[in-house]
């Protein structure tokens, strides 16, 4: 384990220790949340600190979306929304590009992020280890925009079911990815195929790399999110007819959007109001496969199925986050050794 990781772990341990002492006498309920946070209202997310002196009201709000192969996708897509958010909150909005899911969780926990979008899998880590409170997903007037886990192979391959993948090399996006890892771990065994046992798991680092890797022959198949596959096809980055879908799951949420638990309640309400008042311009609707707004959700009610899948797969704790970080750093190192750009 690198010096950076050891230093970070020591810092997080120290924070947790101090928080534990501070909250031990004053927190009646915390549930699965880290000792830094309380959940006395039963929302399964961190409560606003009781002491108003701990409420944050910064002049600049830092905002980010989930790490993707091309960070400009989210930064450019949200440029117009950031202007709207500035006008509605009276705050300067700065976009902060993150390069991994673990780094995004760490940034939220350390207080460097105020508003963020987390991929479905890492949302659990962000909520329970970083005080993140999700309240929206992309959607439409009456429903959220969903995504399925799909298993793709080359269109001309002989693979037609999960059973055909036994003994093969299958791309999974990352250890924290809902569609790209957790769903396969939880659901494939029902069809007699256990990832890592019946087939070799190869972490690609990104959904996009999993999809490209099937066509280049790096992987026999890939587990990925239908929303990302569709977005790449719509953008002309892949040809959907060159792939075949041999398995798909039910519909689940895509990226969650939320804020840090300790923002001043007046500021937090302004941010939420701005999210729900905003309508995506046509070019952003195209980027996000037709979604035209942010749709309201609550973590306790709407994220239950995602959390259930993640729990069935194991690793939902601080040790799981450290494992995720190590694997993401190893993936970056392998990409550099191969002469490829590091996963973004």
Account of the 3D structure:
This protein has 344 residues and is an alpha/beta fold. It has helices at residues 3-23, 72-77, 79-89, 101-109, 120-130, 178-187, 207-216, 226-234, 265-277, 282-287, 299-302, 304-313, 318-337; strands at 60-64, 92-95, 115-118, 132-139, 146-147, 149-154, 169-172, 200-203, 221-225, 243-248, 252-253, 256-260, 293-296. The chain has 2 domains: 3-144 and 253-336, D-Maltodextrin-Binding Protein, domain 2 (3-Layer(aba) Sandwich), CATH 3.40.190; 149-250, D-Maltodextrin-Binding Protein, domain 2 (3-Layer(aba) Sandwich), CATH 3.40.190. Helices cover 41% and strands 17% of the residues. The strands form 3 sheets. Strands 2-1-3-12-4-13 form a 6-stranded mixed beta sheet, with helices on both faces. It has a 5-stranded mixed beta sheet with strand order 8-7-9-6-10. A two-stranded antiparallel sheet has the order 5-11. Strand 7 (169-172), helix 6 and strand 8 form a beta-alpha-beta unit. The two termini are 21 Å apart. Mean pLDDT is 87; it is low at 1-10, 12-17, 19-25 and 334-344.
Distance between the termini: 21 Å
Given the C-alpha coordinates, what overall shape results?
A: globular
Q: Helix/strand/pairing class, anyone?
A: alpha/beta
Helix content: 40-55%
The CATH topology of the largest domain, please? D-Maltodextrin-Binding Protein, domain 2
| Name of the top-level CATH class of the largest domain | Alpha Beta
> How much of the polypeptide forms β-strand, as a percent range?
15-25%
| Tally of domains | 2
Give average pLDDT, whole number: 87
Low-pLDDT runs of 5+ residues are 1-10, 12-17, 19-25, 334-344
CATH homologous superfamily grouping of the largest domain:
Periplasmic binding protein-like II
Lateral arrangement of strands in the main beta sheet = 2-1-3-12-4-13
**What's the helix-strand series?**
HEHHEHEHEEEEHEHEHEEEHHEHHH
- CATH architecture grouping of the largest domain: 3-Layer(aba) Sandwich
Taking Cα atoms only, what radius of gyration do you get, to the nearest Å? Answer: 20 Å
